[in-house]
């Protein structure tokens, strides 16, 4: 700690060290981990991002390089790596084909299948309202994290997801929506002191919210090493149960799996388990996501039949009603 920061530290009557109005946490890694766990995996937080988590913790706690430790903690969270979508450029640079010396020397075929309906358009329109879609995605991430962490039904997490979102830091408001409305933060396990009164946030400042574009179609280079562990992206299909969860609340990635070979500049061979023997083990880099920390308990992919094209067979759980034609056939 430099002299400038040291001058801001005070010691109270009980021997507790404070940095301005924030509690100084000693260099006890177990204690810091308990604080980070409570701020990230608690039922009242639901795996926030590193920026939101830092904004919440910095109001009460301080230690050297706290922001860096929070970012590292969130990046290595196994639940966050499996459920949160990437807001990055698609991986894999364009690989141009060599120009053949003679005509018809090389012949390539490409089959286009699975095209969506064109009369009324497709239901997949992520750019309809970017701001609303971003909020929906945050809420979906919260519900997935809650369902995976606490093994509960997603609908039981809806009130908690609403509370967590309204009580978490928003960059557009520069505070939590709850604080903007009531003038103070709602008390949770981390906010153990009595919330002080503040001036209610005025509507004029809300208009300063900035909209960001997530439609950058350019790609980014991404390189892995042999021996790295990566997550594998699987297809999202409506009405399909994956790992005990249905539809949008199913994990986006499975794994992690070990890279055994690099097949060209943008393809890698993975070490897949025996029950995935039917799946081709070479994948494009855009389907992979680096595992920053190999979890002790990985998601069991053997409980569901994965097709060679990384999709899932849709099976009805219960027949609730039948139409007239089905009744006549029986």
Task: Give the rounded overall mean pLDDT.
Answer: 72
- Find the count of extended strands (DSSP E, 2+ residues): 11
Order of helices and strands: HEEEHHEHHHHHHEEEEEEEH
Distance between the termini: 80 Å
In DSSP terms (H or I, runs of 4 or more residues), the helix count works out at: 10
Q: Sheet bearing the most strands, described?
A: 5 strands, antiparallel
Principal-axis shape: elongated
Q: How much strand?
A: 5-15%
Radius of gyration: 25 Å
Structural category:
alpha+beta
Strand order of the largest sheet: 10-9-8-5-11
| Low-confidence sequence ranges | 194-216, 237-245
Fraction of residues in H or I helices:
25-40%
GO molecular function, one term: DNA binding
InterPro entries: Integrase_cat-core, Integrase_H2C2, Retrovirus_Pol_polyprotein, RNaseH-like_sf, RNaseH_sf, SH3_Tf2-1
Pfam family, one: SH3_Tf2-1
Organism: Paspalum notatum var. saurae
Write up what this structure looks like.
With 330 residues, this protein is of the alpha+beta class. Among the domains are: 74 residues, Endonuclease III, domain 1 (Orthogonal Bundle); 75 residues, no CATH class. Helix content is 26%, strand content 12%. It has ten helices and eleven strands. The strands form three sheets. A five-stranded antiparallel beta sheet has the order 10-9-8-5-11. α3 packs antiparallel against α4 and α6 packs across α7. InterPro entries: Integrase_cat-core, Integrase_H2C2, Retrovirus_Pol_polyprotein, RNaseH-like_sf, RNaseH_sf, SH3_Tf2-1. GO terms for molecular function: aspartic-type endopeptidase activity; DNA binding; DNA-directed DNA polymerase activity; metal ion binding; RNA-directed DNA polymerase activity. Keywords: Aspartyl protease, DNA integration, DNA recombination, DNA-binding, DNA-directed DNA polymerase, Hydrolase, Magnesium, Metal-binding, Nucleotidyltransferase, Protease, RNA-directed DNA polymerase, Transferase.
